[in-house]
Amino acid sequence: MTTTPTQATIEIRNLKPYYGKRLAVRPVNMKIEPNKITAIIGPSGCGKSTVLRCLNRMHETILGARVEGQVMLNDENIYAPDVDPMLVRRKIGMVFQQPIALRTRSIFENIAIGLRLAGINDKRVLAEKVEASLRAAALWDEVKDKLNQAGTALSGGQQQRLSIARTIAVAPEVILFDEPCSALDPISTMKIEDLLLDLRKKYTIVIVTHNMQQAARISDNTAVFMVDTDDGVPTGVLVEYNPTSKVFTQPDDPRTEDYISGRVG
Ligand code: ADP
């Protein structure tokens, strides 16, 4: 697998995610830098997952949910009318909180399935791509002798790396992570964090985490969201977006400081 960085930039312009009539998050404007890790933090319900799901058109898969505004992947608006959401989701992959190891499939097939859907059927090419993806997800050495065993036989941390391998297999430019370590023990968490730092060399990464230490450890930039109830309806709001070192030492917004010091959330 090539290690050429994808250099993908995402620019979020005036993004407004709705659930039915309710605006979930006030207009978001953010530029996500290429080959950096951008963390999204904030208390429960501030819209972290909602905003993340808007970045690869997953939000609209929820009944009644819709989006206004633009998300530019490099120079292309992923919400333009002629854009196929399936292709967007291949370019901007997503790894979820719970690892997804497909129950009825082997470790090999867990990865090959996405490749077949992308039109790759040649056995040799499939085998090469499965191996390259497992290597890139730091899982190859642990599974190379049991590729035909069920994916579900792996530990939680290994299943999460299998999910990452599946995402990498279809050659994304950006990978979104929604609380990827919240179901994992500290050692498995450390392995995923090391892997994220490695993947950053090639991919642009956005991670939602409720774990502030994790954001501080691995991210380059941090976006802080809060819940605003001023008008009586709880609505998410982006209060600060800065380099992570600044967010954690000299935040611009007093609400960031309150959150980081544990006074809210
Ligand atoms: P976070 O990830 O920060 O915990 P979410 O993005 O899950 O926050 O939620 C933001 C807001 O959107 C919350 O008020 C939540 O209740 C609402 N919300 C989330 N998912 C749905 C849904 N499927 N239907 C309706 N409202 C939702």
Could you characterize what this model shows?
The chain contains 10 helices and 11 strands. By secondary structure, it is an alpha/beta fold. It has a domain at 10-101 and 174-260: Rossmann fold (3-Layer(aba) Sandwich), CATH 3.40.50.300. It has a 6-stranded mixed beta sheet, sandwiched between helices. Strands 1, 2, 3, 5 and 6 form a 5-stranded antiparallel beta sheet that branches. It is globular. It starts with 9 loop residues before the first strand and ends in a 5-residue tail after the last helix. The mean pLDDT is 94. The chain binds adenosine-5'-diphosphate. The site of adenosine-5'-diphosphate (ADP) has 13 residues, from helix 1.
Which characteristics define this entry?
Rossmann fold, 6-stranded mixed beta sheet, 265 residues, 5-stranded antiparallel beta sheet, alpha/beta, 11 strands, single chain
Task: Furnish the topology, listing elements before pairings.
Layout: E1 10-19, E2 22-23, E3 28-32, E4 37-41, H1 48-54, E5 65-73, E6 76-77, H2 85-91, E7 92-95, H3 107-117, H4 123-136, H5 140-143, H6 156-169, E8 174-178, H7 186-199, E9 204-208, H8 212-218, E10 221-228, E11 235-243, H9 244-249, H10 254-260
Parallel strand pairs: 4-9, 4-10, 7-8, 8-9
Antiparallel strand pairs: 1-2, 1-3, 1-5, 5-6, 10-11
Helix pairs in contact: 3-4, 3-6, 4-6, 6-7
The structure holds adenosine-5'-diphosphate.
Adenosine-5'-diphosphate is lined by residues 19, 24, 42, 44-50, 62, 234, 236.
